[in-house]
Amino acid sequence: MTWKTDVSEEKSLCRYCGHVQEDTVSECLQCGAILHQRIPHSIMLTWGYALAAVLFLIPANLFPMMVVTALGNDEGSTIMEGVIYFFKHGEAAIGAIIFIASVAVPIFKLAVLFFLLAIVHLKRHDKALLGTKLFHAIHFIGKWSMLDIFVVALMVSIVQFQSLASIHTGGAAIAFASAVVFTIIATEKFDPRTMWDEIENTKGDYQCVRRL
Amino acid sequence: MVRGQTACGDCGIIIDVDDFDTTHQYSCPRCHSTFYRPGESYDLVIMMAITSMLFFVPAFFLPIMTLEIMGQSHSVTLFQAVWFFVNDGYIVIAIIAAASGVLIPLALLGLILMMAIALKIGYDPRSISYLIRLYERFSGWSMAEVYLVSIFVAMIKLGGMAELSLEFGLFSFSSFLVTFYITITWFNPHDLWNQDDLEN
């Protein structure tokens, strides 16, 4: 079955108000937003942000997330050490939440992003339905990887008893925050419609990128 | 949306919508994504947004917890937790946490109120379309629910080193979160363009 698409009908959809118009129009006739048939440079930007996120995940897992100073002793803990701490102290549920939010979800998100990029590059239209569902899933769960960053930010501001105990952020906090933010941007830049496009979209982004 | 033709934002097919009923949810026949979700009337949205704003004030300025460590007692408000970093150098983490956890949800509520009230008093939706673009830009970055869970995780972590007691601010923050989510679920920015719906 062939479908009428916005590319074949030469239409473009305004993502802000939902108005459909000829793709020669550059500003939405209904709301005035700048129109793009596909997100500009979607594939290239997704690759860039996803690879940056992968690079930032390495220091994020090696360096301590926060350093606890109690009665003169410094004690740093990485993400995995924090998870293990909870499992050892009988708080398995909290340990599982942190493990899912800060280890499983970032890796799953990046794996899905590379899978989606592979669908686009290899033109596997048979996988496009699965890809769209996975895309919605990572949109939904993406923000939960910020959990550990918020915990660190709260702990640092709460525990400030000058001489007795204080908490500082470690090097991993900023790396992990960057990794999560870059993954979210990569997801926002990815245009799921590129997975479905049967014909090369000449007004879209990735052809223009190749021509450059 | 009653325009005869629309396109799916997730796979790009053109869908004819001749008898379009704005009280139902519609999914794309090819990629199964939802392309229209009905919203509530703007009266309800405005009321819920104001309720949520009212909960925000105690949530932000009243203590969320009190902790006691070796005789020293210390109560924490969200305002302090956000403001602390400004004095103390962890600027990037602080901006990310404060913005996505607290400030962006508040900004979204403000935008919803501005848009809904402007339409109620008879503005042309075209003149406020920059607010819609701002709303769509920010809506992916509101993480208030993650912030609430992180407060609980931080409490359990602190439980090992200090005596903790919950305070009223935490309950206000939870109520803020619930009403905030009801507001953004009821509010459908595409309905701004649907004149039939405005008359309800």
- The low-confidence parts of chain A are 201-212
How many domain units of chain B? 2
Uncertain segments of chain B are none
The CATH architecture designation of the largest domain in chain B is Up-down Bundle
Biggest interface goes to: A-B, 64 and 62 residues
Rounded mean pLDDT score of chain A: 82
Beta-strand segment tally of chain A: 6
Shape of chain B: elongated
Helicity of chain B, in percent? 55-70%
Strand content of the residues of chain A, in percent?
A: 5-15%
* Sheet of most strands of chain A: 4 strands, antiparallel
Structural class of chain B: alpha+beta
- How would a textbook summarize the main sheet of chain B? 3 strands, antiparallel
> How many separate helices of chain B?
7
Helix run count of chain A: 8
Task: Determine Rg of chain B (CA atoms, Å).
Answer: 21 Å
The total tally of domains of chain A equals: 2
Report the end-to-end length of chain B measured between terminal Cα atoms: 16 Å
